[in-house]
Each structure stands twice: as C-alpha cells, then as structure tokens.
What does this fold into?
Amino acid sequence: MGGGSAVLIKKGAEASLYLEMWHNRKVIMKRRHPKLYRTTELDTVIRSQRTAHEPNIIHQAKKAGVPTPTIFKVDMEEANIVMEFVEGKQVKEVLDTLSKEERLQLSILMGRMIGRLHKHGIIHGDLTTSNMILSPYGKIVFVDFGLSERSVELEPKGVDLHLMKRALQSTHYKHATECFKEIMKGYAESVGQEETKKVAAKIREIEKRGRYVADRE
Amino acid sequence: MTTNNSGCSYCLGIESTADDFGAAVVSFDGKVLSNANDAYTPKKGGIHPREAARHHAEVAEKVLAEAFETAAVKPRDISLVAFAQGPGLGPCLRTGATAARALASYLDVPLVGVNHCVGHIEVGKLATGAKDPVTLYVSGGNTIISAFEAHRYRIFGETLDIAIGNCLDVFARAVGLQQKKGAPFGAIVEQLALKGEKLVSLPYTVKGMDLSFSGLLTAAVSAFQSNNGSIEDVCYSLQEVAFSMLTEVTERALAHTEKPEVLLTGGVAANKKLQSMLTVIAEEHDARFCVVPLKLAADNGAMIAWAGILAYKSGITTPLDKSYVDVKWRLEEVYAPWVEAQLC
It folds into this structure.
C-alpha cells in the first residue's frame, strides 16, 4: 500500500473499511477478512467471488446513472478493494433528524436511484440506510454492493425493496411508512407506473410468504 | 392473587404450537418446577396438523397431571395460566388454548396468551442471564434473527422460505435417514457431519439480512442422489453452508446493533457445530455467547409460563373473548414493556 497508516473506520460483519492515503488521495480500503467460523475452503470461495463481483457491478451502477465510489484497485488474493472515500453522512444518521419535507424529498431521491438500478438489471442486495451516503452536494452515493446481483426478474427486485422496507422498519420505525411510500414514488419516476405496480404487488406477495404475516395492508 | 402457604405465586404454561404438547409450572421468581411434555411422532413424513391436534387432546390430561405432580403444586395454588396463542399450526394451537381457557375459568385466575417466539427468547434469557442479546432463534418452524429496540423484539433477518430445522428434517427424510425415538433428525445429520471430509459445492443464499434454505435443500438432496458425495460429506457440507449463512447474518445484526450478547435458542440450538460458529463471532465482537440449555431448547411449557409471568407482571392479561389463536402472529407485533423494565 501507499505507506500511510490505515485507520479502521468501520468493522462490518462482511468486511472492514480502512481509511488511508493512497497516492495523495483519501481512499477507502475494503478488506474482506477471512471468517474463522467458516471452513477455509468455503470462506475463500465466498470472499474472492464477492471481491471480484463488487467493483464490476459498482461500475455498472455508474452507467445506470447512480452515484457510486470510484474504484482504484482490486486485489483478488488479499480480497481487498481500494476505492474513493465518499465525503458525506450515512442516510441512517440523517434521516430521523431531517424536517418532514426534507425527509420525504430524500426518500423520493432514494427511490429514484433504486429505480435506476433495477431498470438496468442491478439488484443491490443490501438496501439499508447505512449503505447510502448523502454527499454535501445532495447526491446519494450507493456503497457496499457486496451482496448485489444482476437480474431483471420481478422476484429479486421485490426482495430488494422488501429489504429496504424492513431496514426502515427496524432502524427508522417512526418514519418507516411515510418514507417507504415516497421511495416507491421515486421508484415509479425511474421505472414507470406499470412496472412499479408489479413490483409493489411482488413486495406484498413476499411479505405474505413470510410465514407469519397477518394479511394487512 | 392466590398464593400457597410458602407465599410464592405459580404460573401454569401450556405449549401446543406444533408437534409437542407441553405443560409446566414456573414460579413468579423464575424457577422451573416442572416441564412435562409429550411429542406427536408421525408414522411417516412430517406433522399432520389434525393428527397432531388429536394427539394433544389425548395426552393433555396426562401431561398436565404430570406437570402438577412433579412441581408438587396443586391446581388451586396456580395464580396464572399462560398458553401459546401463536404462531403455529391452527388445530394444535386451539387444543392448547381450549385447555388453558377451561383451566383459567375453573380456577378463576387470569389468562395470558403468549407469543411462541417470545417464549423461546425469554426462556433463553432466563436460563443464561442474558439481558439484551441479539437472538438467533432456530427451530423446525422458525428462523429469526432478532433484537429488542423500542418496546418490541424487532426482526433483523429471517428465512424467506423454509426454516433451518425444516430444511434438515426434509433433507434427512429425502435421503432415507432413519429417525430414532427421541432424537430429532437434526441430531442424526449432526452426527453424520462429524465424519464428513469433502466440501460439496452447495448454494449459499444470503439476501441482505434474510436467508433462503429451499435451494440449498434441493441441491443437497440431489448432490446425494447423484453420488456427488457420501452421506457424511453431504451432511457436513449442508451444515457448513447453512450454519455459515446463519452466522453471517447474526454477525451482521450484532455489528449493526452492538448488543452485548448473542443468544442461541430454539430446537436447533442443540447443534454443537452451530454453537461453535456463533462463539467465534461473539468473541470477535466482544459479546457474550449464550445458549439455551438442552431441556429448554425445543418447544416446552416452561417458556410459555415464564413469558406469561413477564407479561402479567407488566399488566398484560388476555380476556377470554380475545383469547382466539393467531396462527401468523409475528414476533414484532408483540408489545413487550417488560423488557424495558429488565434493562433498567
């Protein structure tokens, strides 16, 4: 690495993020540590698959018009990725502190971006408010595509948004309902009403499929 | 409140959500005085809800009598009747609920309907001393990763299709393993897995915080049928993949919530391999690993009694006209004010 000392800024379950200087740039190094609970054989496969896959799909997201960090370097053997440090705050931190109007605006924007991803066959796979960074310029930068996949099917789109809804309910329970409604509005702006109706029906179906969901709206 | 001559109050708990009919007497200060049980064993295949309910109705009297006898508590010394109100199989739930209503009316004591999943979490906390854990609740019917936030046990992740216990059961039946009386299929798979050496490639399906086991089940069965590995290898691989998935999501919930404990509860909690994987992540996140003791792991009346006592102490009772069962009662629908009191 560039010689500077790495500072651990986030120890996630999936990977750790280090902030460091790399050729005079502030960068994030995402390192997928070996998981000691998994047998080495399985662990190696999962880590290298995810390390190769993530930069690829991050690039495709940019093409779809969704802001994502710039990738500088990928090291398959060490299972690490060096990418741009995105200035800003996690949506998780700001969502509950905003005024109602700002919160709904932000939710619409989130929905619009998710819509762009889905329209281009990108399923994020871990849509939570921790994985969206609100830049000082008011853009939402999507990070952590570690669990993403390519698909144009309704099912994974539904699962993706169902996860977003669930993340809102568990982390932002006070505003979950109104925020998700706006997300779906923004989503419709990107993919159209027709498709949004189908995806919304899919989300309801997934909710009912969960074993113990009462039939409620 | 009725008390016996030692001044202690007791709750009778009745569990009948699936194949087990359980009855237990637990004191209000958390001592499990008895935990009687009789399980319905299908002659072939899985649980037939109506057959299981018929079994429960047949054994109810015997199991209840045993619960009182072992505890050396007389029915008239009971101050509260708790029963599993859901989620579960409708006919089975109704059998337990009917017995609970009849007893509560006859003894003229309050009735409390308990959420089965809350029962598993609370009895795990009672037995291990965990205060505020991330809970991995794994059984034949449920696979839930949960933690307490603002009045409720929130669900952070769960299965999108079948439960892990169900996955292991159906796999075992599909490949022709024989169930021994008293030993669940999971235990047989666990034993065989110990002798497995080769990792057979099986799908690893984690979708954000949620899990899917149906594809894994199909792939494991077909790996065995197409001679891709010995039965030991396939059992080993199935466990490695399924438990790694569970551990990955539990770790993510732990990283997100920064809770001080990890609690493993439910019937599959008995699996040593799963326990050892969770121990690793608990240590890494400076959390204490807690596992429910074997005798309280599977469905039982004591967990219902204890969850009933907690609810009752915080002012919750279930009037007769609100005591109908709810087969789809979600964990996060339960208002749980007693947990905040525990955390103070």
Summary: Chain B touches chain A through 45 residues (CB under 8 Å). The first helix of chain B runs from residue 49 to 71. Residues 10-121+299-343 of chain B form a domain with the Nucleotidyltransferase; domain 5 fold (CATH 3.30.420.40). The two ends of chain B are 26 Å apart (CA to CA).
